[in-house]
From TrEMBL:
<dbReference type="Pfam" id="PF00654">
    <property type="entry name" value="Voltage_CLC"/>
</dbReference>
<feature type="compositionally biased region" description="Polar residues">
    <location>
        <begin position="13"/>
        <end position="31"/>
    </location>
</feature>
<protein>
    <recommendedName>
        <fullName>Chloride channel protein</fullName>
    </recommendedName>
</protein>
<keyword id="KW-0812">Transmembrane</keyword>
<feature type="transmembrane region" description="Helical">
    <location>
        <begin position="159"/>
        <end position="184"/>
    </location>
</feature>
<keyword id="KW-0472">Membrane</keyword>
<dbReference type="GO" id="GO:0015108">
    <property type="term" value="F:chloride transmembrane transporter activity"/>
</dbReference>
<dbReference type="InterPro" id="IPR014743">
    <property type="entry name" value="Cl-channel_core"/>
</dbReference>
<feature type="transmembrane region" description="Helical">
    <location>
        <begin position="362"/>
        <end position="387"/>
    </location>
</feature>
<feature type="transmembrane region" description="Helical">
    <location>
        <begin position="275"/>
        <end position="297"/>
    </location>
</feature>
<dbReference type="GO" id="GO:0016020">
    <property type="term" value="C:membrane"/>
</dbReference>
<feature type="transmembrane region" description="Helical">
    <location>
        <begin position="115"/>
        <end position="139"/>
    </location>
</feature>
<keyword id="KW-0129">CBS domain</keyword>
<keyword id="KW-0677">Repeat</keyword>
<dbReference type="InterPro" id="IPR001807">
    <property type="entry name" value="ClC"/>
</dbReference>
<dbReference type="InterPro" id="IPR051280">
    <property type="entry name" value="Cl-channel/antiporter"/>
</dbReference>
<keyword id="KW-1133">Transmembrane helix</keyword>
Length: 418
């Protein structure tokens, strides 16, 4: 590394250009350095976590230490899991220590450096807000078309046709949503929150910040939400926000083979990490219309590196994202202009608005506490059963040796739920 820095420092000093940084953990150089590329003793990182299951797992379904457990229970790793964990690349997020690079940064001045960060934060918030607007309205249009046709059949008393149409319409969109994820980009599956959290805590995961992942996740989420699956856009919005933060802040794309010579000073692991944190927070803000909630989510749930300055920058990004989504939603109903551009009506943007106060009695706390206890117990049972069923599902899918059969099973899974 020192030889690399010295050589490039000399070249930059001679040309007078902005010093180039040592290559950070991009997918290409990670792929060439990982042990599974050089020896047969390690395994390749799983491309699709949804079906990854260690073949040497002999533990029972309710064995402790195999799912998310309390902190006092030690997780039990199999030998295959240990090899898989060792195949992931670790991020250190350390800035460049090149003297020429630090000298170049000082010449830029603190105002230009900080101003650039604020500009990028604003751009990330704006783009995430646009994505939130498009996601909401596209999924709404899909649902409107479905119920519009169903109402027509019901008016003609064609109840069987209405039922078949509603079911078939939903199944088609569900199959499309699952197909593009399974065959085009498995990294777009799920909410994406664990992957974003893993990266922000120092683990590099392949393909999670790729532009293909963004496109597949967007259209898959639109189809899944619009057709009526019991899912929401909030989790995917966090991942898509992080994707925007990762791509927009670097102004380059390996997939598109495009590099724009703008804000090159921010192409470091540390700055990229901060912009990804901002993008994830903006995704929450756009989905819920809550900029403070987005800031707190990023600070408490997914990020491990934080500063006071970063708090203000991310809050600014969240406000821009919320404002952009609400501004466009005020002007458009679906994609039809309503003429209400800039009018923020409380009944539309305040989800739990209380128009009239309610008188309470102290005795109301007794049934309230009982409901709370019952809800907590049911929630715990639901969480435990979900974790066990998810592990059992992975075991069953992993038992299917034919890859194509396995993919087809995964595609038709959500259709059966529908």
């Amino acid at each position: 590394m020192s030889a690399y820095v010295l050589q490039h420092d000399i070249e930059d000093q001679q040309t007078g250009e902005a010093p180039s940084l040592p290559e950070t953990s991009t997918e290409n150089n990670i792929r060439n350095r990982l042990p599974w590329k050089k020896s047969g003793h390690s395994v390749e990182p799983p491309r699709d976590d949804a079906v990854y299951y260690p073949k040497d797992d002999t533990y029972g379904v309710f064995a402790q230490g195999r799912d998310y457990e309390p902190v006092y229970i030690t997780h039990k790793y199999t030998e295959e899991e240990k090899k898989t964990l060792s195949s992931f690349e670790s991020e250190d997020y350390l800035p460049s220590h090149s003297e020429i690079y630090k000298s170049w940064l000082r010449r830029q001045g603190p105002l230009g450096y900080m101003l650039g960060k604020w500009i990028i934060m604003g751009l990330i918030g704006f783009c995430v807000g646009i994505i939130g607007f498009l996601l909401h309205n596209l999924s709404e249009e899909i649902a409107k078309l479905k119920w519009h046709m169903v109402e027509k059949y019901l008016e003609n008393q064609d109840f069987a046709v209405a039922s078949l149409f509603a079911t078939g319409y939903s199944v088609i969109f569900v199959l499309f949503s699952a197909f593009i994820v399974v065959f085009l980009r498995p990294s777009a599956s799920g909410s994406g929150i664990p992957e974003v959290s893993g990266f922000l805590n120092g683990t590099h995961l392949r393909h999670i910040f790729n532009i293909k992942t963004l496109a597949v996740k967007f259209f898959s989420c639109v189809a899944a939400v619009g057709c009526g699956l019991p899912v929401g856009p909030e989790g995917p919005m966090i991942h898509m926000g992080a994707l925007v933060g990762a791509g927009l802040s670097q102004f380059k794309s390996e997939t598109l083979r495009l590099t724009i010579p703008v804000f090159e000073r921010f192409r470091t692991s540390e700055d990229k990490r901060n912009f990804i944190s901002a993008g994830a927070a903006a995704g929450v803000s756009s989905a819920f219309g809550a900029p403070v909630g987005g800031l707190l989510f990023s600070m408490e749930e997914v990020s491990s590196f934080w500063t006071t300055t970063l708090s203000w920058q991310i809050f600014f990004c969240c406000m821009i994202a919320t404002f952009t989504t609400d501004l466009f939603n005020s002007a458009f109903d679906g994609f039809s202009y309503t003429g209400n551009f800039g009018q923020f009506k409380t009944q539309r943007y305040i989800l739990f608005q209380i128009e009239k106060g309610i008188d309470v009695n102290i005795l109301m706390f007794i049934p309230t506490m009982i409901i709370g206890v019952i809800g907590g117990i049911l929630g715990a049972v639901f969480t435990i059963m979900t974790l066990k069923m998810a592990r059992g599902r992975k075991r069953l899918l992993n038992a299917i040796s034919n890859e194509w059969v396995q993919k087809m099973v995964r595609i038709f899974e959500p259709a059966l739920i529908m």
